[in-house]
Specification:
Elements lengths: L8 E4 L14 E7 H5 L2 H8 L5 E8 L5 H13 L4 E6 L1 H21 L7 E6 L11 E5 L6 E5 L7 E4 L9 H20 L5 H23 L4 H21 L3 H13 L3 H17 L1 H5 L5 H12 L7 H18 L13 H6 L1 H10 L12 H12 L1
Parallel strand pairs: 1-8, 2-3, 2-4, 4-5, 5-8
Antiparallel strand pairs: 6-7
Helix pairs in contact: 3-4, 5-6, 5-7, 5-9, 6-7, 8-9, 8-14, 9-12, 9-15, 11-12, 14-15
The structure holds nicotinamide-adenine-dinucleotide and fe (ii) ion.
Fe (ii) ion binds next to helix 5 and helix 9.
């Protein structure tokens, strides 16, 4: 049996943030990071929340939010008798807000008869994680430094507001890294073991939009049409993978991100061409036994306008297009280009493999993975 459920109301396009004016007579808490406050973006949102009874700002979010931050956030919500949480920022701020609201509910469930349901409104400022519509939140264990994925339908925000105005300040390197996260989400969800017609149509449109509009966003962050399209791509890719999970690419990227503090989208992009190559299993394709993933990569290549007369040509053109895009956006393609020494990389090889094998995303990969397979992919990104 397959299931399709999307519970987040999505408002999109220019001026979508005006929807915040509708919130009246509630205690609102804005969860964000210092950059959003210093850059004036938080102020812009506070003005739209002016009809609320009270507004408080929790601006302590940092990339890859640790559990200690979540605990401080819960105390903050309780102190402010919060009714709605507005999450403003990239995946880190939205994930932090999701985890704070989710865990606050759990604490309250255990202590109150009828806990107040806090409404969560997500305002993404990167076109990347799709966290505004997913049932995932990634937090970091403060002691071990490991990323802990929380997975629960109740983590889905009640409302997502996709306003391109919020993304245009993202500098080219953040646009590029987060945009590659979108492309990885679409591609991984498309071939995931659990993919379905419902998730496929979301992934196809997300990939089509992202390959067309990411270069434009990178070239000119103020191209509002391209930003709008990329924001939609990010959301559609998020919907797709929220339904069917991801795969080995994210399994490895989570390990690289946690161990070396490589930004999430950059870590995904590093391994993407090699994971596609692994999943398509080209040695078998040469023997005329192309697998389902190779056929799907071929279809995706066609959708984004690449020649793909056979699975083999489709896969190799898709990989070439990703490499071309990475070069265009001046992205690192090896671990050494990310500023990590080979010695440090090798010292952590076994730990990366352990974490990738155990990651909750890896189980959805369409091709069964061994430790040796991961080690070979790591060889490809070493230098
Ligand atoms: N919940 C999910 O479904 C999901 C999926 C993928 C990744 N994640 C998680 O999301 C996090 C990564 O999120 P991210 O890639 O969006 O980056 P991020 O939220 O960590 O932000 C990266 C940097 O970009 C800055 N920034 C954000 N928006 C900006 C803007 N408009 N202008 C200028 N600077 C801006 C932030 O201040 C920060 O310094 C990781 O923790 C990852 O594990 C979650
Ligand atoms: Fe991701």
């Amino acid at each position: 049996m397959k299931r399709f459920k999307l519970s987040t109301e999505v408002l999109f396009s220019e001026d979508a943030i005006d929807a915040l004016l509708e919130f009246k007579d509630v205690n609102a808490v804005l969860i964000t990071d210092k950059f959003m406050v210093d850059s004036g973006m938080a102020d812009m949102i506070l003005k739209k929340l002016r009809n609320c009874k009270s507004i408080s700002v929790f601006d302590e979010v940092i990339p890859d939010p640790p559990m200690s931050l979540i605990e401080r956030g819960i105390a903050f919500l309780q102190d402010k008798d919060c009714d709605i949480v507005v999450a403003l920022g990239g995946g880190s701020s939205i994930d932090a807000a999701k985890a704070i609201v989710y865990m606050n509910d759990k604490v309250k469930d255990a202590t109150e008869e009828a806990p107040k349901k806090i409404k969560l409104i997500a305002l993404p400022t990167t076109s990347g994680t799709g966290s505004e519509v997913t049932q995932f939140a990634v937090v970091t264990d403060t002691e071990t430094g490991k990323k802990i994925p929380l997975i629960d339908e109740s983590l889905m925000p009640d409302m997502a507001i996709l306003d391109p105005e919020l993304v245009k300040s993202a500098p080219p390197f953040i646009t590029a890294d987060t945009g590659m996260d979108v492309i990885t989400h679409a591609i991984e969800a498309y071939v995931a073991e659990t993919s379905s017609d419902c998730s496929d149509c979301l992934a196809e449109k997300a990939a089509e939009l992202a390959f067309e509009f990411l270069p434009r966003c990178y070239r000119n962050g103020y191209d509002i049409k391209a930003r709008d399209k990329m924001h939609r791509a990010s959301c559609l890719a998020g919907m797709s993978f929220s339904l069917v999970n991801l795969g080995l690419n994210h399994g490895i990227a989570h390990a690289l991100g946690a161990i070396f503090h490589i930004p999430h989208g950059r870590a995904n992009a590093l391994v993407l061409p090699h994971v596609i190559d692994f999943n398509a299993d080209m040695a078998r394709e040469a023997a005329k036994h192309s697998n389902d993933s190779a056929k799907k990569y071929q279809k995706l290549a066609r959708i984004i306008g690449l020649p793909a007369p056979t699975p083999k040509v489709g896969v190799s053109n898709l990989i070439a297009e990703i490499n071309r895009l990475m070069r265009y956006m001046d992205r690192p393609t090896t671990i050494t280009e990310c500023g990590i020494s080979l010695e440090e990389f090798e010292a952590n090889r076994e730990e990366i493999i352990n974490r990738a094998m155990a990651d909750a995303c890896t189980v959805a990969n369409p091709r069964k993975v061994t430790r040796d397979d991961i080690s070979k992919i790591l060889d490809c990104i070493a230098k």
